[in-house]
Specification:
Length: 545
């Protein structure tokens, strides 16, 4: 059968379907398939689906269309018909997903108009129902056993909160689809193929209607009061844009260690631990998401995850930067514990694709910054600062502290000890940090180190955090004396000096400079930097009464 005859027969089948003569349509389709069985014809998937719809077998129709998409994931008729089938099934989230995919590849004006009308109608129908407070978006790619634990924990421990559950199946090849479809209260979103974590989350976030959107991976187990605690934090200040809890396994100083030996004991630990405590809310420069809980309108404003971070790594850093630069705070809710199995979602990409290194380079190219280095804080040094527990207010000066993490973390530590009113002034030397350090400063100055004393004339501080290098100190030893004059009585200077390599002679010279500054050295230590020949000399100096 030549191409022209094939087209004529397919047209006849479509006409029979349209007039409701399904038996003749099926007979003609069977004859056609027998004659052209050597040819893979993608239009036949649409025809088979149309017959299934006419027989009110929507699940069978969906199966035909999904089979067709395995051949051509951008075939507009398949995408459009999937959108229409999900509309018939009142699954408006999934319907608009497929209509959106069809709209992206549609070229005929009439079809574009039809699709846009369907999308708008779905949105109108959705708007008639009461909006939830939170949209919880779960992303899953295979690993069904983990996914079930995750979803079941959300259902069990998310109480007293109005929420919708959006389940994103990121092209799984196991039984994730069947499981998601079996949950009548959820909004399943089945993606045609694995589009990567960031793009998968973006699809879920785009259909969220809650005031807040909470994105979670399927390798977490959620715990009593997890969402209630996050809500208490984010609703305490309209300038808080993004909050996340701690977890059993996570970096960025967000790990919470508990005393348990199995999942049942873990839940008992979480029950004891998860009590809201504002003193444990830590503002951060960078936040990793056990839960990416963000104001939904803010997500729309910043346009969700940057798809360049395809594998997921450093997408968290990137969205942290964009939320801060939009004028909002990031808060780590240290009062809330969740359980993380650890890199179930991204481990394979890290091993096979060097996804971590690739994503880190993308971040560096985008910001001219290294998130791991420029947002890190030195907890070891900060822990050596003594706190006047009788104080109610504190003032901090940060000098050359990159994106400002050390002064900010010192403020968090003071708050945890009951000092709730802390003012941060930052003095920026390297202009590449200006945009970010402003976001965590109450007062801000920039300029060369030699002008610092003049710009801060008349100001006094309880704590100064100074990140410097040995060459600069040897060229300008007077800077320590100038900083001494900026300290209140009993004030402290936390100094981190960088050296290209260990040199005991130079370090001893620097210690002599510091001893002659009129300040008392209460702590110092030399530590090697990770994977580098560089070392740091960490010193705490105190201005005695």
């Amino acid at each position: 059968m030549n191409g022209e005859n094939q087209s004529m027969v397919k047209q006849q089948i479509q006409e029979l379907i349209e007039i409701g003569n399904i038996s003749d349509a099926k007979r003609l389709l069977s004859e056609f398939e027998q004659k052209s069985k050597e040819v893979e014809d993608i239009e036949l998937y649409t025809i088979r689906a149309s017959i299934a719809v006419a027989e009110n077998n929507l699940q069978e129709a969906e199966g035909y269309l999904l089979e067709g998409l395995l051949i051509d994931s951008e075939y507009v008729d398949l995408l459009f018909n999937l959108g229409y089938i999900h509309k018939l099934r009142h699954n408006l989230v999934q319907s608009n997903y497929y209509f959106g995919q069809a709209l992206r590849v549609a070229s005929e004006v009439e079809l574009v108009n039809i699709i846009e009308d369907f999308i708008e109608d779905n949105r109108h129908v959705s708007s008639l129902t009461e909006k939830p407070l939170v949209s919880i978006v779960v992303l899953a790619y295979n690993k069904l056993s983990y996914t079930k634990l995750c979803v079941e924990s959300i259902l069990e421990y998310t109480q007293n909160v109005s929420y919708e559950l959006i389940l994103v199946n990121n092209g799984s090849t196991d039984e994730t689809k069947q499981y998601f479809d079996s949950l009548p209260f959820a909004k399943p979103l089945h993606l045609i193929k694995n589009v990567g974590p960031t793009n998968g989350f973006n699809e879920g976030m785009r259909v969220a209607v809650g005031k807040y959107t909470a994105c979670v991976c399927n390798d977490f187990i959620f715990t009593p009061r997890w969402l209630e605690n996050l809500l208490l934090c984010i609703e305490s200040d309209e300038k808080i844009g993004y909050v996340s809890p701690g977890a059993s396994m996570i970096s960025n100083m967000q790990q919470i260690n508990g005393d348990y030996n199995n999942l049942e004991e873990m839940i008992e630990f979480a029950e004891r631990y998860n009590h809201s405590d504002p003193r444990k809310w830590e503002e951060r420069v960078r936040l990793l998401p056990c839960v990416l809980m963000v104001r939904t309108e803010l997500l729309k404003q910043i346009d969700y995850f940057d798809p360049r971070f395809y594998y997921g790594e450093f997408a968290d850093d990137d969205i942290s930067f964009r939320i801060r630069r939009a004028g909002y705070k990031l808060v780590y809710c240290k009062d809330t514990f969740t359980y993380h199995f650890g890199s179930v979602t991204v481990r394979e990409d890290q091993t096979n694709n060097n996804s971590l290194g690739i994503s880190r380079d993308i971040f560096k190219a985008k910001y001219n910054l290294d998130s791991w280095i420029d947002t890190a804080f030195n907890l070891r040094l900060l822990n050596e600062i003594s706190v006047k527990l009788s104080s109610t207010h504190a003032s901090i000066l940060g000098i050359n502290t990159k994106c400002g993490s050390n002064p900010l973390q010192l403020k968090n530590m003071l708050k945890d000890k009951g000092i709730l009113n802390t003012h941060i002034t930052n003095y920026c030397i390297d202009k590449k940090y200006t945009k970010d350090i402003r976001t965590v400063s109450d007062d801000f100055f920039e300029g060369e180190i030699d002008y610092l004393h003049k710009k801060l004339i008349g100001m006094k501080f309880d704590y100064i955090v100074f990140e410097y290098d040995s060459d600069h100190l040897n060229r300008s030893p007077q800077i320590i004396g100038e900083l001494s004059s900026l300290l209140n009585q009993s004030g402290q200077l936390a100094l981190s000096l960088s050296y290209p390599e260990f040199d005991e002679v130079i370090m001893n010279k620097d210690v002599v400079i510091l001893q002659n500054s009129g300040l008392t050295i209460s702590y110092y230590e030399v530590t090697a930097k990770n994977n580098s020949s560089e070392v740091e000399l960490e010193i705490i100096l105190r201005k005695d009464v």
